[in-house]
Amino acid sequence: MRQLSPSKLVLCALATLPLAAQTNPDVPSQYQAIYSNMTTQISAFQTAIDQGWDATPYPVAWAPHLSSAESDQFTALIAPGYFTNTVLVELQELQATGAMAVTTHISFPILYQPFYDYTDNSSQFQQFVSFYQQVASAVHAAGMQLVVEATVAESLDGTTGGADFEPYYQTLDWNDFMNGRAQNAVNVAQLIQPDYLSLICEPDTESANAYQPTEDSPSGALELLQSQLTALDQANITGVQFGAGAGTWIESFTTYLQNYASTEVNYIDMHVYPVNNSDLENVLAGASVIQQSGKPAAVSEAWPDKIANSELGTLDINTIDSRDAFSFWAPVDTAFLQAMVDCAQYQQFLFFAPSFPAYFAAYLDYNTYGTDTPEQILPAAFAAAASANKAGAFTSTGTAFSTMIVGPDTAPPSIPAAPIASTASSTGVTLTWVPATDNVGVAGYSVYRDGVPGAQIAAPPFYDTGLTPGDTYTYTLSAFDAQGNTSLLSAPLVITLIDLSPPTVPTDLSAGSVTQNSVSLTWSPSTGGGGVGGYRLLKGTSPDAMEIIAGYVLETDYMDLNVIPANTYYYAVESYNLQGITSLPSGPITVATLALPPPSNLMTTAVTDASVSLIWSPSGGTDPPAGYRILKGNSPTSLQVVVGSDPDTTYTDSNVWPDTTFYYEVEMFDARGITSAPSSMLTVTTLPGNMPAVTGP
Question: What is the pTM of this model?
């Protein structure tokens, strides 16, 4: 986190070497001048350190950033599995370099409840508390210290899930801002309990990000710091050391440091990014001012910005940060880290925190990504680092940093225990194992299948897929550290996979007896090396929408009683073995159920001028009818139901008038309300008035 402006300080008479015409064939032409200038500036800085330092080691807490836990990523931090799959993996890889601490941001307003009231997400506050308590617990369980910067949150380049904090910041006046920063710091100290807590780090950047111009002055920054220290004192915080600092590029740099030293802070912090002009000189000058105050110095952020003098104050942070991603910068990054590591020991810093350990794990190739935009480069760089962390991989910069802080390391990790197969299928196996140990830290493991190295992984479990059912495989492991030392192979695990191949697809599916209310199905049996456990029947009203209607059929026949007359159904059958592995379904067959038979022999038994008596033969079918419906009309095309009858097969219609022709039909319905086709139509003409009744057909 920083805001760059032209450096205005010349605080000591560090001799600057002349700009050498240094070229590197791997550096693109547009970056050759920057590369040369950086090499010159870093070399001069290293020379000044070497001239003053007698090479006596000092126990600095090497604390690279745990980037995956930076609060600027906001909701990405609380996504399911993120802590285990990303944070713990990066923590292990940083420990493998020899780091004794890690640094991360828990910035305002990430642990400030009113922010979540403002965003209508009150429950998120506790989610972030729980996340950072997990982080602190994991760091301390690893025997490491936790350094926290509680500054101002902003979107972290190359990540997803970041919040837009600007609208909230713009609602705060200076007092609101100071109160919020103070409460955020108290919550971090009380709930997370880091070892070191930097309360202000870059007054100029924080001021710009939070729309608080008052902070961008020595007096404003001092007022903000004192308000936080007062709140922390009133909260009776113990066991946490507090600090404050500024970037080496800021105007009035020493005034900020002297103001901080006048308070009750335990240490003074510095950020180091530009290496232009006198920026590296200011590291030594600032350390001198801090020492004179009687307090220790620390650096909570440092990485060499790849920027020309003429670009200072003109480039956005994304553009600057995206330049870091390319592998041709590795020699510059390594030289910068060596100078800063030596400076930290020379000036007896409490801790030193490289800002971008992503480049300990992976760089990008300029030939592939050089024409991309910063918005494309940064996510690709973070993704490459995450993948490298999961494989336990390191760049030359990462390996060099490890050597700088732990010295030459030739001791390999312990031999891992034999892997254990926690799960297995017909084509894959999941391996776990007891972690190996190392004098610094295990970076990862190489997994061998049948004596051939297959994968590198930071930690178990390991999933091996694409195997052949029934085959036997032998697995062994070796552990390696950040400097490439490799253990001997573990004892082997020999595993034979069960043949879980599905049975053959059932054949010859056919319908035997089909009635109005049932379909009888049969098929030929399946076969398979894993045995046949049974069959599943599928059914649908279209071949594209079939569902299982019977999931445990042991024989090769099935009677479907859940059908409706005069409907079309599609059936298929699939088999499964004793492990539940299912075959493909057979090709569907089409079955049409029979319609309900209509009543027959509709006739009259008597006709008068005022009534018509009807009789008919009952319907056939497999089930007895529930009843009959009489249809009547004055024309053959206008028949309507006039009555729903009981199962009786006679009916007398008294709603008629003399000398009129009526048309009748009758239909049957079953217990489900399903109706048959109507009977044949009967035409009846009533008698004229006062005529004797006519009987018979």
Answer: 0.71
